[in-house]
Amino acid sequence: MKRNMGWEDLRLFLAVAKAGGLSGAAEKTGVSAATLGRRVSSLEKSLNVRLVEREARGYQLTAEGRDLLLHLEDMDQAARSIATWRESGRVRRRIRISAGGWTSRLLIDNIAGFWSPGSDWVPEFLTDLRNRDVARRQIDIGVRNGRPKQAWLAGQKVGHVEHAAYRARVVPSGGEPGWIGLVEEEAHFPTGLWLKENHGEEVDITVNNATLALSLVRKGYARMLLPTFVGDAYPDLLRITDPVESLTTERWLVMHQDERHEPAVRHAVSALAKMLKQNPLLSPGP
After folding, report:
1. Phi, psi of 121 (to 5 degrees)
2. Distance (Å, rounded) from C-alpha 203 to C-alpha 87?
3. Against a cut of 0.70, is the pTM above it?
4. Do 243 and 172 reside in the same domain of the chain?
């Protein structure tokens, strides 16, 4: 017997056995009678037993065929139960979405714009300093700042991201606040390098994650470079520069070529793209 016997041959034999012949099974399964005959013969060779007697009026099961049919009916019932369970909506694909800190927050704040509990997929948001690998299937969708270069990746452009400097509209007495600088890994990001080059001597407070700085800026203790979809969302913040042209990047949704047409991934990409193309802002909250 072959070690890896396929369920498809067994399923087609079950259809032939129940129909009593090839024509009835062909009508039921949509598989041609000739193909069904070949699959039954292949299964017999795999099992090394004769399963049917081929007669002019149809197929008659041998004793071995009847024994196999009993087992297959149990398997068929289990398969039907699994299908019913899946169709009930309890099984939905979890789509892993990777993005930077600000963009992840943007997605979460605007989740109603691209997902609902009735969707055929559920989101898993991943944010850290690593560029998680779509090619290795570590994630399903990556929000990235450029077109994917690898042939096995697909991408859809959904807009661009601008950065500008902000401060609080009301600042504590004592003069213009200093700047917030970035340290550790984010110091080497384009935003960190721009801050160091243009305002390095004016930095008072440093953080290793730009998202930590927002409350300090809003309280008037510092100025900070922020994505405009963040800074423009807060009425208590004032944009004090034009967008920095050298820091403007494209925004792309990136996915694996082999996965892009999978229904849940396709639905997620379509919904995310529609929302992001509207240039949403963060939800400012309290």
Report:
1. -145, 160
2. 57
3. no
4. yes
User: Are 256 and 242 in a shared domain?
Assistant: no
Tokens standing for 201? 């001597």
The tokens for 187 are 């110091």
User: Strand 58-61 vs strand 52-55: parallel, antiparallel, or unpaired?
Assistant: antiparallel
* Same domain membership, residue 267 and residue 150: yes
Alpha-carbon distance of 103 to 109, in angstroms, equals: 10
C-beta separation of 134 from 256 below 8 A: yes
Residue 203 forms beta bridges with which residues?
179
Look up the domain containing 242 and give its range. Answer: 163-247
| CA–CA gap between residue 12 and residue 73 (Å, rounded) | 12
Residue 152 in any domain: the answer is yes
67 and 49 belong to one structural domain = yes
d(CA 199, CA 67): 82
Compute the Cα dihedral for 160, 164, 170, 172 and give only its sign: positive
Interval 220-249: pLDDT, tens:
999 999 999 999 999 999 999 999 999 999
Do 9 and 39 form a contact (C-beta atoms < 8 A)? yes
Residue 60 carries which side chain, given as an amino acid letter? Q
Beta-carbon contacts of residue 47 (< 8 Å; ≥ 6 apart):
1, 5, 64, 68
DSSP secondary structure letter of residue 130: S
Query: Per residue in 167-219, pLDDT tens?
Result: 999 988 777 899 999 999 899 999 999 999 999 999 999 999 898 899 999 99
Has residue 285 been placed in a domain? Answer: no
1 domain-assigned: no
Classify residue 8 as exposed, middle or buried by CB count within 10 Å of its CB (0-12, 13-18, 19+): exposed
The verdict on residue 282 lying in a domain is no
Longest dimension (CA), the chain: 102
Q: Count up the domains in the chain and report the number.
A: 3
